[in-house]
Amino acid sequence: MTIESPETRINTEKAGKLSPRRFCTAPMMEWSDRHCRYFWRLLSKQAFLYTEMVTTGAIIHGDGGPKRFLAFNEEEHPVALQLGGSKPAELAQCSKIAEDFGYDEVNLNVGCPSDRVQNNMIGACLMGHPNLVADCIKAMQDATSLPVTIKHRIGIDDQDSYEQLAAFVDTVAATGCKTFIIHARKAILQGLSPKENREIPPLKYDVVHQIKRDFPELEIIINGGLADMPSISDQLKAVDGVMVGREAYHNPALLLGVDHHLYGCAQSSTDLKGIIREMYPYIEQHLISGGKLAYITRHILGLFNGLPGARKFRRHLSEQAYKPTADLQTIEDALALMPMIPSEDPITP
Hints:
The protein is of the alpha/beta class. It is built from 18 helices and eight strands.
């Protein structure tokens, strides 16, 4: 039997009084897969992790069945499944499947601007159809006891007034949906690539702050452009939580400060080499099952960013981890290129 120390119990109680979504990692296609989320969980025990968007069609009709797309590691909890779709019945079916798989939340994607998903009425284009979105959310709620949440933009194309955004939120909230993750940029659906849609439309944090003021009963999570603990802490003065994407991926050491600075828990270990070695049993199982080392190591390349030797570490793994003979020694050889580094808090505000 494990006995909690008084300090651990106090830290857990502190975290329990805050929104579990005070800090979230964003759903990112081809990036936030199960290997990435396992790594992130070693950096933060409190962060709420979101899967890549998985379409209803893949889950219902995809080769290999739902397990191919939905399997995850128990260590990832709390973890949310983000669904892409616009047919209420299919979203309901997939929400029930998500509950059966053990997810902690189901999230509807109403923010992705890519042409591919638009053609299937998935993602940001749904903001132009608030009643359909409400029907989807309601069908998902009726199919599962899990929290059903939504991630969306502040607008699309010329439908970008505050009044239109507030009407959208009001329509969806009428279903009983309580959690809105809002990317503080509008999406331009014609003429900009998904990458450009993450950079060109200006960030308007004040619009999301106004939504929180006008809908104080809702949990509002802000997303977009957040890259350091001071800016994250500043946002938490106006909203309930933050969602961080690209920065969490490219500079994962950011997550080392989440539990302490945002949840009042003990400081996470800053032994970066030790954190990577904690993954070795997981990596060994992956290799035994026939997986390639690079499928995992690609997610850890940014851990040493800004430190001496980081470039050599990245280069070695990038060049060697794809080889058929790559194994744990490949990682050890990369770690040997990093000089001894002091344990310190890399993200103190």
